[in-house]
Amino acid sequence: MTGHFSSLVFIMLLVGAAGGVINYCTLSSRNALDAALLRRCIMLGVLSTFLVPFVLSLFGSTLIVDSEGDPANLLNYVAICLTVAILPRFFLANVSENVMAQAQATSEKVDMLQYQLRQLQDELLPLIDTETEDDALVELSNGSGTAPDELDLTSSNVLKTLGCGRFIYRSLPGLCQESDTDESTMLKTLGFLTLKSLAGRIGGRKGVRWYITEQGRRLISASA
User: Fold this and answer.
1) Residues of the chain with CATH 1.10.10.10
2) Ramachandran class of 109: left when φ > 0, alpha when ψ lies in -120 to 50, beta otherwise
3) Cα–Cα distance between 126 and 162 in angstroms, integer?
4) Cα(93)–Cα(200) distance, rounded to whole angstroms?
5) Contacts within 8 Å (CB) and 24+ apart, 199-207
6) Helix axes 214-223, 71-131, angle to 10 degrees
7) CA 163/CA 14 separation, integer angstroms
8) What percent of the chain has pLDDT over 70?
9) What are the φ/ψ torsions at residue 69 (nearest 5 degrees)?
């Protein structure tokens, strides 16, 4: 019986190590040898095989006793040990796949949140600029900058339309309809006003929108 016990221990050590090597070859994608991963896989495989007698006893199996002097039962025991030694590979593979999938999903969510944050920042900056006093704008009240009489009738009309509507960010069709101006003229006028820092444009979730700057509001007030 002692010799049979020693044989079973040797089988579990050998089969566990073999299962660990199989797991290493399956899990490792590197060409170079990863000694640390190989040791962990072999150790895990050996420890797994030593659970086989306990599991068999829980199910009331007499395979260990019957395997003494019976090659068929001994081979069955070897097959069970090898199966148990290889099982951690499936667990580790599933865990790694789940971790990678969750990491990818988290990365995509972070990228989306950063994109939405940049959009929100672009939309809020004109509001912040409007409510923040700028020393450079004082020059306008001192006679420098764009004077009201420098704007033609169309530019003045478009600037007033930007500043007097109930929306802060205006669409091109809405501006054309409210100011009774065609799109080509409107685009040229908006480009001129943007060049003069009287108007600005942002690209939001709903497309390109136009807004009046604080300097444009001061110019409207000065011409009133």
Assistant:
1) 133-223
2) alpha
3) 13
4) 53
5) 199/158, 199/159, 199/162, 200/126, 202/122, 202/123, 202/126, 202/169, 203/122, 204/119, 204/122, 204/123, 204/169, 205/119, 206/171, 207/171
6) 20
7) 83
8) 76
9) 80, 5
Q: How confident is the model at residue 200 (pLDDT cuts 50, 70, 90)?
A: confident
Fold of 133-223: Arc Repressor Mutant, subunit A (1.10.10)
The predicted model scores a pTM of 0.40
Residue in this structure with the two tokens 């009201």, named with its chain if needed: 148
Return d(Cα 190, Cα 79) in angstroms, integer: 80
- Beta-sheet pairing, 207-212 with 199-204: antiparallel
Average pLDDT of the residues in 72-85: 86
Cα–Cα distance, 212 to 219 (Å, whole number) = 11
The Cβ of residue 135 has, within 10 Å, a number of other Cβ atoms equal to: 6
**What pLDDT, on the 0 to 100 scale, is given for residue 143?**
46
